[in-house]
């Protein structure tokens, strides 16, 4: 290794160790940031939903980028389908929100998405893995997979989820959920 290369490696090591000392154990938050913490905290508290789950869903759905609309028409940070959003607004008795607001306004989208996660959690008796799957595939499909014995609803059997997209989605959300709970001591 050349002298110049050794010098670069030592400089990078010095910068890395300095960053760790300066930031403490929270240096991983650079790689796994949580945006919209106030909104997530507020709505998670209101609807008694795990804020780390909300953050993980947002990370997988849009990586915290507002104004997103999927090819299938899902809107905003939490990628809510318009029909699901209309149903959730009615069931939650929340003020009417336009689809444009749902797409562009983080707080409105996070509130409705968090309410929906809370609803799914009640439907699936707090089974976080089934809730994540239902958020992606729909509660009817997930319930039928469980009832038909195709999947038992557990994280350990996530490999048995019949839809590849949902199986991959569940694995990604759980990955980010675990990262967030390890990195952030509290929300």
Number of domains: 2
Number of strands: 0
Quickly name the level 1 CATH class of the largest domain. Answer: Mainly Alpha
Low-confidence stretches: none
Give the distance, in angstroms, between the N- and C-terminal Cα atoms: 45 Å
Assign the CATH topology of the largest domain.
Answer: Lysozyme
The gyration radius over C-alpha positions equals 20 Å
How are helices and strands ordered from N to C?
Answer: HHHHHHHHH
Q: Approximately what portion of the residues adopt beta-strand conformation?
A: under 5%
Descriptive overview:
With 187 residues, this protein is mainly alpha-helical. It has two domains: 1-28; 32-183, Lysozyme, CATH 1.10.530.10. Helices cover 63% and strands 0% of the residues. It is built from nine helices and no strands. Helix 4 crosses helix 6, helix 6 packs across helix 7 and helix 7 (128-137) crosses helix 8 (139-147). The mean pLDDT is 92.
Provide a quick synopsis of the model.
63% of the residues lie in helices and 0% in strands. It is mainly α. The radius of gyration is 20 Å and the shape is globular.
Give descriptors for this structure.
single chain; 2 domains; 63% helix; globular; Lysozyme; 187 residues
Write the layout of secondary structure elements.
Elements: H1 3-23, H2 37-46, H3 51-62, H4 82-92, H5 99-104, H6 106-123, H7 128-137, H8 139-147, H9 164-183
């Amino acid at each position: 290794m050349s002298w110049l290369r050794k010098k670069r490696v030592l400089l990078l090591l010095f910068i890395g160790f300095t960053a760790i000392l300066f930031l403490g154990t929270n240096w991983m938050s650079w790689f796994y940031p949580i945006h919209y913490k106030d909104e997530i905290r507020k709505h998670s508290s209101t609807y008694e939903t795990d804020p780390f789950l909300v953050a993980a869903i947002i990370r997988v759905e849009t990586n915290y980028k507002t104004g997103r609309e999927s090819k299938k028409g899902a809107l905003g940070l939490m990628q809510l389908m318009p029909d699901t959003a209309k149903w959730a607004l009615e069931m939650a008795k929340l003020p009417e929100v336009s689809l444009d607001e749902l797409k562009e306004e983080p707080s409105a989208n996070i509130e409705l998405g968090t309410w929906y996660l809370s609803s799914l959690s009640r439907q699936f008796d707090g089974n976080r893995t089934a809730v994540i799957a239902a958020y992606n595939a729909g509660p009817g499909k997930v319930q039928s997979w469980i009832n038909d014995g195709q999947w038992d609803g557990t994280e350990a059997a996530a490999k048995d989820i019949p839809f590849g997209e949902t199986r991959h989605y569940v694995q990604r959300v759980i990955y980010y959920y675990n990262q967030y709970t390890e990195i952030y001591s509290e929300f």
